[in-house]
Design brief:
single chain, alpha/beta, 2-enoyl-CoA Hydratase, Chain A, domain 1, 2 domains, six-stranded mixed β-sheet, four-stranded mixed β-sheet, 11 helices
Amino acid sequence: MKEILIDRRENGVAVLTLNLPDLRNAMTDAMTARWRQAVAGLAADRELRCVVVTGEGKAFCAGGDLSWLAERRIEDVPALRDRMLGFYRTWLTIADLEVPTIAAVNGAAVGAGLCLALACDLVYAAEEAKLLAPFTSLGLHPGMAATYLLPRVAGVGVAREMLLTGRTMTGLEAASAGLVNRAFPRESLMAEVLGIASRIAANAPIATRLTKVALAGGGHADLDAALRWESLAQPVTMASDDMLEGLAAQREQRVPRFGNA
C-alpha cells in the first residue's frame, strides 16, 4: 500500500502523495489500484474539505509506466481500448470528488501525469518543474483526456503546441501561458499550496461544493444557463445553517465555524 500516501489533516485537508520516487512516480498497475482505493475512500469522507495531490521526490508524475504500455502491444485493439479506458477513468476520478482539488506539481509532470494535474481544480507548480506531453514522439496518440484538458485549461493554441511539437514548459512558463495558476519556488511550493487548501477548507462546504459544480468543465455555456443555476443554488445556501453562521461570524467579527456538508 506504499504507492499512495494519504495524510488527513484536522482542518479537512487530505494530501495524496504519489510515492514511487525511484520510478519518478510512474503510474504502475499497483499504483493505479491503490489510487482507485484512495480516491474512493476520500469520496466517502463527509469531513473532507479539500484534496492536495503531489509527488514524492523530484518528480510529480512521469505518466504511464512505459513497460506497462509495451506489454499491451501484444493485445488487439478492442482489448487495449478497454484497458486504456479503465486506466484513464481510474486516474481521472480525482475530478469526480465533490470538494476542490489542488495539484502541487513539485517536479516533472509528463503525459498522463500532466493530465492528472490538469484534472484538478487548481494547479500550482514549482518554478523549475517540467511540464510536457510527449505522446506523439513516442508514437502514441494523446491519452488521459489530453485533447480535452489542455485546450480547456490553456486554450487550443497552447494545446496544439504542446501536443504537436512536444514542447516542454517550466512551471514559470506554464503560469505565464495559463496552464497552471501560479508558480512558486520549489522549497516553498507545499507551504503555499497547503495555505491555499486551508483557506478553501475554512469556507462554507455547501457553497464551496456547489461552486465547484458551477465551474465544472469551464463554467456555464451562456449567461442564461448561469442565471438559472445560480437562482437555484444560491437559495439552497440561503436556507443553510452555513449562511446563518457566516453572517453571525461577520457580525461578531470572528472566524466562522462551518459544519460538514
